[in-house]
Structures are given as C-alpha cells and as structure tokens.
Specification:
By secondary structure, the chain is of the alpha/beta class. It is built from 2 helices and 8 strands. The protein has a 4-stranded mixed beta sheet with strand order 1-4-3-2, with helices on one face. Strands 5-8-7-6 form a 4-stranded mixed beta sheet, with helices on one face. β3 (37-41) and β4 (50-55) form a beta hairpin.
Length: 120
C-alpha cells in the first residue's frame, strides 16, 4: 500500500482574500463551504490535488514546515512577476541566491516556491 497527495490544506485568516489569491495563482475554481471554508479544484483534465482553505480566524505564526513548490507552464521569472502582481511577495528563508527556485509568500505570509523547472 502507498498513499498519494489528494489535498493540500491551508489555515487562513481572510478566506475571501486567500481564495481569490490561490484560485488565480493556480487557475483553480472555488467552491465555498457554509462552514467558513473554501475548496479549490483544478481545471478539468489537469491532475493535481485540491486545496482546502480552512478559516482559522488567526494569523500565521512562524515559518511553514510544509509548503507548495509550483512549476510554471512558461517562463519561471514571468510567473514570479505574475504571482507578485496577484499579491505575493518575495520571502527570505535563508536562501543563498544559487537555488533553482524563488521563495515567495502569499498575502498571509505562507511561503511557497516557484521552481526553475520540474523537480528532478
């Protein structure tokens, strides 16, 4: 037996803002729960886990222990610019500048990376 990643869950303070950011960032559609949550679904025919945004009502505290690594469909630098335009910001987690990725943080400071290419 093995397991596979089916869903990524993120506790959020501002559900509307985070659903707007992550749905635009990933190209996912938003399904709203009546329990203060939202589920993001990948486009039809595109594999990928769903993302559950769980309203926590509290801000993030400390560095993420788990984060997303994104791969752009095109130019990684252009994707970083697009994500920053959506509300992400560059984040410093101790990188040296020679990594094959850029570290960003979403509007609630959750770190994620944009890889220069698919993981090897």
């Amino acid at each position: 037996m093995t397991a596979h990643v089916a869903q990524y869950t993120l506790d959020v303070d501002d559900l509307d803002r985070m659903a707007e950011f992550w749905s635009a960032a990933l190209g996912y559609t938003v399904g709203r729960g009546d329990d203060g949550s939202a589920k993001l679904y990948p486009p039809p025919g595109r594999p990928g886990p769903t993302v559950w945004l769980q309203g926590s009502g509290t801000p993030k505290n400390g560095k993420n222990r788990l984060h997303l690594d994104l791969v752009a469909d095109g130019d990684p630098a252009a994707e970083v610019d697009r994500l920053v335009g959506l509300g992400a910001r560059h984040a410093d987690v101790g990188q040296t500048g020679s990594e094959g990725f850029v570290v960003l943080a979403d509007p609630e400071d959750n770190e994620f990376c944009v890889l220069d290419g698919p993981p090897s």
